[in-house]
Amino acid sequence: PSGFTILASAGQVPAKVVTNDDLAARMDTSDEWIRQRTGIHTRHIAGDDESTSTLCTTVAQQLLHQAGIGADQLSYIVVATMSPDYATPATAAQVQGAIGAANAVAFDISAACSGFVYGLHLMQRLLAGPDVRYGLVLGGETLSRLVDWTDRSTAVLFGDGAGGVLLSNQGSGQYLGRDLRTLGDQGAYLTARALHGQAPSDAFLHMNGRKIYTFAVRAVPRSLQAAVDQAGLSLDQVDHFLLHQANARIITQVAKELDQPLDKFPMNIAAVGNTAAASEPLLLAETIAGGQIQRGEVLALCGFGGGLTVGTVVLRY
Ligand code: ACO
């Protein structure tokens, strides 16, 4: 099999919406600061009955329904997350159990905001094997449970949600190129849930925003260019660049750096904030559902963040 086709795409966010003004009422920040520095207006926050696994399970059910495929036909389920319900079982195993995908091998990958792109690459390899046909790649987060709600430098940035795709190794879609990189020597710039920490605060998400910003505006254009080169295409031949929604300013700067029109970079950060591994699949599902992406178009998906990690996958939809 040589195809790699997105048969279905779906996203799910918690019902509860938290505005910048809601945050300004509980910490020293403002709607103006958050909008100007990040582009975020609102984010969705999980309720008591919602978790990373419940959001991912809803997405998985939507994907099967859309594609008209039975859960027993799935060979693999991969969930990218940095905020799983448990260290074990894996979120993917919880999803597999909940949807009754008896024939699927299911496991999580931990690559923060690059997790979905790393997952697509992995699934392309997995689906090249014999006697397999369908796999799910999901990204899901409840980052609201990792952040320190007294730390304005991180609490205003993140949101909860899940998204994903159902992939087949047949059909008209194609995997065209990729560029994945890990910079483990810079991992200290973004950490969460330390189990060995000395202080209770070590369990929270900590980020050196300036360092990650500088990393992103250098590494993302390079990764996009390398993946497009590998695909044997030019940047002009990419129809849509779906970037991790961490900061609207990063996306604007990347578009400028690559000399590509900003309207090729769809954004939903205003409504959902930074949802880490859920970011690109939520955006993909929204743009496909909105009719902005057509069959046959070339997509470049790029994630970057904790690890540090960066990754781009180029596909024909
Ligand atoms: N409200 C008001 N003021 C604030 C807030 C806030 N929420 N947060 C910080 N400030 C203040 C700071 O204290 C600082 O004040 P000072 O100048 O008096 O010291 C000032 O605002 C500027 O702070 P900076 O951190 O320098 O602000 P910056 O312009 O760098 O924006 C931001 C911060 C938005 C975090 C930016 O650095 C960024 O987006 N970084 C990249 C993050 C990213 O891409 N992450 C991706 C990976 S995420 C993942 O993997 C999970």
Automatic annotation (TrEMBL):
Entry function: Catalyzes the condensation reaction of fatty acid synthesis by the addition to an acyl acceptor of two carbons from malonyl-ACP. Catalyzes the first condensation reaction which initiates fatty acid synthesis and may therefore play a role in governing the total rate of fatty acid production. Possesses both acetoacetyl-ACP synthase and acetyl transacylase activities. Its substrate specificity determines the biosynthesis of branched-chain and/or straight-chain of fatty acids.
Catalytic machinery residues: C113, H244, N274
Beta-ketoacyl-[acyl-carrier-protein] synthase III N-terminal domain location: 107-181
Catalytic activity: malonyl-[ACP] + acetyl-CoA + H(+) = 3-oxobutanoyl-[ACP] + CO2 + CoA
Segments traversing the membrane: none
Classification via InterPro entries: ACP_syn_III_C, ACP_syn_III_N, FabH, Thiolase-like
Domain Beta-ketoacyl-[acyl-carrier-protein] synthase III C-terminal: 229-317
EC number(s) given by UniProt: 2.3.1.180
NCBIfam families in the record: fabH, PRK09352.1
SUPFAM superfamilies assigned to the protein according to its UniProt record, in alphabetical order: Thiolase-like (SSF53901)
Protein name listed in UniProt: Beta-ketoacyl-[acyl-carrier-protein] synthase III
Subunit record text: Homodimer.
Keywords from the named record: Acyltransferase, Cytoplasm, Fatty acid biosynthesis, Fatty acid metabolism, Lipid biosynthesis, Lipid metabolism, Multifunctional enzyme, Transferase
Pathway info: Lipid metabolism; fatty acid biosynthesis
Taxonomy, superkingdom: Bacteria
One Pfam family it belongs to: ACP_syn_III
